[in-house]
Amino acid sequence: KSASHVHALHKPIMRTFQSKLNTPITRITSACGGFSSSTISTKVRGTQFVKTFVTAQSFTTINDKYDNNNNQKTSKASFGASSFGTSFRSFSTQPNTIPFLLADIGEGIAEVELLQWFVEPGDEVKQFDRICEVQSDKATVEITSRYDGKVSSLHGEVGGMMNVGEPLMHIEVEGGEGGGSDGASDKSETIASAVPGEMKEQLTIPSADADRGAARSFEGHSTGKVKTTPVVRKLAREHGIDLTTVVGTGPKGRVLKEDVLSLLGGSPIVNVPPPSPSPSTPSTPSSVPVPAPSLPPPITGERREPVRGMSRLMIKSMNASLKIPHFGYSDEIDVSKLMDLRNQLKPAAEAKGVKLSYMPIMIKAASLALTSFPIINSSLSPDSSEIIYHNAHNIGLAMDTPRGLVVPNIKSVQTLSVFDIARELGRLQQDGQTGSGIKEADLKGSTFTLSNIGAIGGTYMSPVISSPQVAIGALGRIQTLPRFDSDGNVKAAKIMEVSWAGDHRTVDGATMARFSNAWKEMLENPALLLANMK
Length: 534
Fold this sequence. Notes:
Blueprint: H1 3-21, E1 25-28, E2 36-44, E3 47-55, E4 75-78, E5 86-87, E6 89-91, E7 96-101, E8 111-117, E9 124-125, E10 130-135, E11 140-144, E12 149-154, E13 161-163, E14 167-173, H2 182-194, E15 203-204, H3 208-219, H4 230-238, H5 257-265, H6 309-321, E16 326-334, H7 336-351, H8 358-372, E17 378-380, E18 387-389, E19 395-401, E20 404-406, E21 409-410, H9 418-433, H10 440-443, E22 448-451, E23 471-484, E24 490-503, H11 509-524, H12 526-532
Parallel strand pairs: 1-4, 5-15, 19-22, 22-23
Antiparallel strand pairs: 2-3, 2-4, 3-6, 7-14, 8-10, 8-13, 9-12, 10-11, 12-14, 16-24, 17-18, 19-20, 19-21, 23-24
Helix pairs in contact: 1-2, 8-9, 8-11, 11-12
């Protein structure tokens, strides 16, 4: 367009700005070139503001003067008209000290602990430089700079707590990065109201926060604001990519890192070793980063089911067990001779149709030890006023069944032989694996319990007493371990660990140790087991 046309277009705009701002404007300049920069500079309340907008059209330079108040301080302004609309950016021509606020790091965190500073007052920082490291109750985060500038002062002591929204530091920035003063925002609104109606559709005056987006839009030759992260912007800037040309695949069109990487060389990007350079050609390393492997999405959701059957009974029983003050006692037993005894009795048991394991022998030995230490076969009355000694040795066995953990018991063990115990144990195990389950009568009346955790593979355990009993024993698996014989020679021994738990209201540690020793002695010397039977 001609210079006279631009002159005619600018004159009414300048008069309107001048009347609204009550400030003389003495010069209009539009620059030639693909993009022209237009600026209004004025003094408002002692603060200097510069308003810049960009046009996408070439004009001839025009110089004209408008001055209503001669001999007064004047300000410069250059304008260009654009059919693409007009955008404004406000900044201060002098270094501006602004607060760097602790931003919300998500997860509902309201305060964080300051772990360390990476900068000191006087340091020059650029965007994405590390400022400090903070820690919440969920994660440790490094805070990076959002501006280029100079650190003016730091706030907060290492080890202290800081709230979200408080200033971490003050930073001096050039050109009003990060805001400017409140007066700039107020004057932006004044200028917007001064524009004639026919120009308002093309004239846009954003706030200070939006100004930074406008500046980035100009760098990319577009006024559209791209939704992305600072990391993606940095990556695009390093490789000269205009983000406005990238199709975002993220939520609401957000440009992701993968979108930029796909433009650089396909997705996924794999580093390929370069060919060996010739002696005359220097080698230059590739600057294309290798993307980190993507992780599978987190698994969410849950499943709930009502507590029924054996699970309900176990909860009830364990709640009662919480009232018992437990103590533990452990020992190891050499069962080498017990294994020999079992091998000798096995043919006789098979002749009677009985499957003989080590457990019936251990149950019988426990019954004989209970005869010598009846306190282990007792219980405490509900009001804790009496100790109840039980005549019958109803020894319970913890069993893992399809319906859950159950503890049936073999009644009056002191009256049964090893073969009788083996037969009863086999019946209970068979009932536990059937659909009907163990009978209710077999679950009641237990006075003492053994748990054979070794059948699954465990060695040590901290068993839980089932109220109102006062003791329980857990048997570990049998292992072949080196031990010394009576002559000091190393031999291979079959060792089983046993872990006892007692109710310290009724049983003391010394009594539990003596009971364990009596039981151990009969298992390590099966002849004593036979001698004590009645």
